[in-house]
């Protein structure tokens, strides 16, 4: 096709991961074009709570699937699996179920901690080096409890974190309220993770897009992918409504949409869209200083100088585009149990996004099986922001034939 636009590296997807890969590759001397179906950073990158959490444990803890099945008919449950006969979801759940045991949970935690800690260090370096104005702060995070039994049950995770290289402080009710006065008298304890941080994700994405463009990268927005063609074990071109693109190397960074395109390539990418919600408010007067997870309700709370957000929940309901009022309302209702001032004076945005969830809660980073010029950078689950910096670094190392900073074997698509 005569009007094919050729690029050095063609990145499919302009979220936090695609932007991070683009910047790392540009700094390594490669040229980059990003194809983004909407605007850069507008999907799952936009409305999450912006916490940088090496402390985050794998989703497949013992008992997680049983909880989800018990909650199937509860529309406001923290984890909801919508009843479905979709073979892809059933297969995903069976894989997930096999991992919901103590041995596999610990094995994933050990692998994931290395990736998260490397990304946490790299992210702060990147923000400083590139001058990214994104309200980054070494804030730590709090996991907050009102129920003594739940707090006691979490002691195992708190004890595991130091073994994985992270500090975790156990606080009683008085201690946590002294640290965070926004919490009310019902709180009986918390775990504080001082190595965690926070930023405003939409601003971070906008800043990444700014420096990518300043470094010579091209971001083609409003450019949905219509089709993709292969020949002789290579991706030869990508078709869009705005023309055809080709790349010497192609990176698939489409988040929750990755398995849809993967099918056209003959790839089975076991990702399910895990739907999360958030409500953004103007700042309440008694906004928390430290980002927190209200554990019994699985509500994340983050305040920035520019705003305040309640978010989280996990819903496996396919590519459902409805803004579920019941699940949104559960955020404010849950926050009211823990906080003196749970919501801000004005609602600025109600949002949902699809997280790209793999059954083992690890991302997919590395060469695609059978396609020599295709690299996968997807499946980051709830931790796209937290894992963005190390993913960019690892993919750029792969595409410039440099030794990898970390062993990529645990993240290879071939593990499935």
Description:
It is built from 11 helices and 19 strands. Helix 4 crosses helix 11. It is globular and about 65 Å long.
Can you summarize the main beta sheet? 9 strands, mixed
The CATH superfamily title of the largest domain: FAD/NAD(P)-binding domain
CATH C-level class of the largest domain: Alpha Beta
Described by the principal axes of the CA atoms, the overall outline is globular
Chain-wise SSE layout:
Blueprint: E1 5-12, H1 16-27, E2 32-35, E3 51-52, H2 64-70, E4 79-81, H3 87-99, H4 102-130, E5 141-145, H5 148-153, H6 155-163, E6 169-172, H7 173-179, E7 189-193, E8 197-198, H8 201-214, E9 218-220, E10 225-231, E11 234-240, E12 243-252, H9 258-264, E13 272-281, E14 292-294, E15 299-304, E16 307-316, H10 325-336, E17 347-357, E18 364-367, E19 374-378, H11 384-399
Parallel strand pairs: 1-2, 1-12, 2-9, 4-16, 5-14, 12-19
Antiparallel strand pairs: 3-8, 5-7, 6-7, 10-11, 11-12, 13-16, 13-17, 14-15, 15-16, 18-19
